[in-house]
Amino acid sequence: MRKFQQRVFSGVQPTGTLHLGNYLGAIKNFVDLQNKFECVYCVVDQHAITVDQDPHKLRSSIIEVLASFIACGVDYKNQIIFQQSSVPAHSQLAWIFNCVSRIGWLNRMTQFKDKAGKNKENVSVGLMVYPNLMAADILAYQATHVPVGDDQKQHLELSRDIAQKFNNDFGVDFFPQPEPLIYGEATRVMSLRDGTKKMSKSDASELSRVLLTDSNDAIATKLKKAKSDSDLIPDSVELLKEKAECLNLINILSATMNQSQEKTLQEFAGREYSILKNKLAESLIEVLGPIREEIENLLNNKDELNKILAIGTEKAEEIANPILREVYKIVGFR
Ligand code: TYM
Predict the structure, then answer these.
(1) Is the CB of 176 under 6 A from ligand 1?
(2) In the chain, where are the structural domains located?
(3) pLDDT in tens, 178-195
(4) How far is CA 198 from its chain centroid?
(5) Contact 246/295 with Cβ under 8 angstroms?
(6) How do residues 93-108 score in pLDDT, each as one tens digit?
(7) What is the pTM (predicted TM-score) of this model?
(8) Contact assessment for residue 35 and residue 231, using Cβ atoms and an 8 Å cutoff
(9) Does ligand 1 lie within 6 Å of residue 180's CB atom?
(10) Does the annotation count 198 as an active-site position?
């Protein structure tokens, strides 16, 4: 296998305000990786429309996700941030991958099964081929590393399969095997109300998630109401196996404070969960407060945000277009 230039790619859907899961599982790592890699971060609006979206809300969500990236610390001057639909290479490569990927592979995707539920015949074709577009996002940049939360692991495996099948089918060594980067103490942040469900934008309960735009009071209230336990906090993770909500709080606090689960448990063992929840509210307010303020500031200057997107598009195309041209040659288009 040839040696590819190391490059990071990741994307976030503009389907509503981002939450703590998006931050701790992904965006915090986006920021961290900027010191080591060339990074390309994308607002994936084409993925968003695989389920119904209100165009007006989608439009504002795209700008809000961009503002959130910057407020969290993504370095838009030295890295690339842009909107997926403004770089046609993503859909062009996705079409080719629709012809490389297999229906059997897509049928096995648990996220598709979850989202389609019993309604499989009536969901959009886009929802089914969503992972092929995701592979195109990554491979249009020949990206070698992809920071994501744990829920994207299976999609990343599919991207690797597509890269490999393309290379085999055409007898080339053209696409790298993109490596998922799933790390930190909160790779799967769970709902604050039900520790068996992941924290998500679509949960009916507002209390289930902390948003990047929540006020300090809202954060404190959500933490106070977070489900926990009347037992005292144990001193080992083993003892939290049956207590998903409690383990979730420990993980969130560890990730927010950049320390290991073990260290957090040592600190809080033998104490009540209310004490841990107070500390967590305090830490989250410290971390998310400045992010919220910066999002508000940035959203007051949409012209500037639009300029950042235009520059990002240009830089993204500089990488993706020559790669797509090579792919066209490989498949015999010209
Ligand atoms: P999306 O928009 O659902 O989520 C964005 C990122 O946040 C992570 N995440 C979580 N991490 C931990 N705990 C949670 N509760 C949680 N919820 C979300 C996700 O894992 C993700 O990293 N398909 C992707 C977007 C995408 C993409 C790509 C990602 C499109 N093309 C190419 C990487 C590379 C998605 O729907 O993420």
Answers:
(1) no
(2) 7-187+301-331, 206-296
(3) 999 999 999 999 999 999
(4) 13
(5) no
(6) 999 999 999 999 999 9
(7) 0.97
(8) no
(9) no
(10) yes
Output the pLDDT for position 1: 79
- Tens-digit pLDDT profile for residues 311-331: 999 999 999 999 999 999 999
Catalytic residue status for 115: yes
Q: Which of 114, 134, 148 to mutate to test the pocket of ligand 1 (most atoms within 8 A of CB)?
A: 148
Asked whether 159 lines ligand 1 (CB < 6 A), one says: no
**CA-wise closest residue to 222 among 201, 191, 200:** 191
Q: How many CB atoms lie within 10 A of CB 80?
A: 23
Compute the distance from residue 147 Cα to the ligand 1 centre, in Å. Answer: 9
CA of 55 to the centre of ligand 1 (A): 21
Q: Does domain 206-296 have CATH number 1.10.1760.20?
A: no
**Ligand 1 atom nearest to CA at 133:** 31
Q: What confidence category does residue 43 fall into, taking pLDDT thresholds of 50, 70 and 90?
A: very high
Which atom of ligand 1 lies closest to the CA of 155? Answer: 23
3-state secondary structure of 236: coil
Tell whether ligand 1 has an atom less than 6 A from the beta carbon of residue 188. yes
Burial, 89: exposed, middle or buried (Cβ in 10 Å; 0-12, 13-18, 19+)?
buried
- Per-residue pLDDT tens over the stretch 211-259: 999 999 999 999 999 999 999 999 999 999 899 999 999 999 999 999 9
The yes-or-no answer on residue 201 being catalytic is yes
Catalytic residue among 28, 198, 222, 227, which? Answer: 198
Beta bridge partner(s), residue 145: 8, 179
Architecture of domain 7-187+301-331: 3-Layer(aba) Sandwich (3.40)
pLDDT tens digits, 64-96: 999 999 999 999 999 999 999 999 999 999 999
